[in-house]
TrEMBL record:
Family matches, as InterPro entries: Creatinase/aminopeptidase-like, Peptidase_M24_C, X-Pro_aminopeptidase_P
Name the UniProt record assigns to this protein: Actin patch protein
Domain of life: Eukaryota
Organism: Turnera subulata
A UniProt-annotated Pfam family: Peptidase_M24_C
Domain Peptidase M24 C-terminal: from-to ranges: 63-123
Length: 125
């Protein structure tokens, strides 16, 4: 049996009451994962800050929340099945990888930069 699991493990978050925003400026660990029953499992983990989103519209004056990445590591492209992604999801991965390059490259030597460039090359459908 194959299982694709998308979990959000919230650390140090307040109890959320219905329709209230208590997540602001907390952090979360989105953990998309892939598991083969009786065989193995893989989780990809990032740390994100939950913050108020800057949106044009505001339904019922309640506001919206968004995520801001604070850890940056490219996703292993061999683990991505492009047939399961929409064009918008492909764009998201490519944008994320571009941000990884921009943020990490100044801290790397030439050998590490070469690896990063290859690891963050755009994917396509």
């Amino acid at each position: 049996m194959r299982c694709l699991d998308f979990l959000f493990i919230f650390q140090t978050l307040n109890v959320v009451k219905k329709y209230q925003r208590t997540y602001r400026m907390k952090y979360a660990l989105p953990e998309p994962g892939y598991y083969e029953d009786g065989n193995f499992g893989i989780r990809l983990k990032n740390v994100v800050i939950v913050k108020e989103a800057d949106t044009k519209f505001n339904f019922g004056d309640k506001g919206y929340l968004s995520f801001e990445h604070i850890t940056w590591a490219p996703y292993q492209k061999k683990l991505i099945d492009l047939s399961l992604l929409s064009p918008e999801e492909v764009d998201w991965v490519n944008t994320y990888h571009s941000s990884c390059r921009d943020i990490l490259a100044p801290h790397l030597d030439e050998h590490e930069k070469a690896w990063l460039k290859k690891a963050t090359e755009p994917i396509g459908v």
